[in-house]
């Protein structure tokens, strides 16, 4: 039984490589796995799940063991259960469940990378731009869809 690998879409490979602090690049992430997890979380937050299409040869698909060793398997499982609403997807005994979890994670990561590509276009320093994106999300005011109710100010 082969251990599954997390694949990266060919059209996002250059971005993933640029986001890693390796081989002359000064990206904000230490590993490709870190980039993929961040992108998957971003994709999930904005419900952007995009099929991979053509798979990148470089960077090569990343072993699921790397994600497990870094504690990222919890996110992979959470995304799968949230997407399918089926607890059987967490089964360690069903190979198709593991393949489905990996596919869901890859597609959310691909969606997140698509968003990052658009947000980071033209940026000189990805770290600064990512910090701005995160700060914007953190300090974004809670907007309500309800109309403002003036009746609470009336004395009846």
Describe the structure.
This protein has one domain. The chain contains six helices and two strands, in the order βααβαααα. It has helices at residues 13-18, 32-45, 64-69, 73-84, 95-120, 126-138, and strands spanning 5-6, 62-63. It has a two-stranded antiparallel ribbon. The longest helix has 26 residues, at 95-120. The relative contact order is 0.18. The mean pLDDT is 86.
Overview in brief:
49% of the residues lie in helices and 3% in strands.
Return the structural class: mainly alpha
How many DSSP helices? Answer: 6
| Overall number of structural domains | 1
Shape: globular
Strand content: under 5%
Main sheet specs = 2 strands, antiparallel
Gyration radius, in Å? 19 Å
InterPro entries: DNA_S_mod_dnd_assoc_4
Organism: Gloeothece verrucosa (strain PCC 7822)
Protein name: Dnd system-associated protein 4
Sequence-ordered SSE layout with sheet pairings:
Layout: E1 5-6, H1 13-18, H2 32-45, E2 62-63, H3 64-69, H4 73-84, H5 95-120, H6 126-138
Helix pairs in contact: 2-5, 4-5
InterPro entries: DNA_S_mod_dnd_assoc_4 (IPR023983)
Protein name: Dnd system-associated protein 4
Organism: Gloeothece verrucosa (strain PCC 7822)
Write out key terms for the chains shown.
156 residues, mainly alpha, two-stranded antiparallel ribbon, 2 strands, Dnd system-associated protein 4, DNA_S_mod_dnd_assoc_4
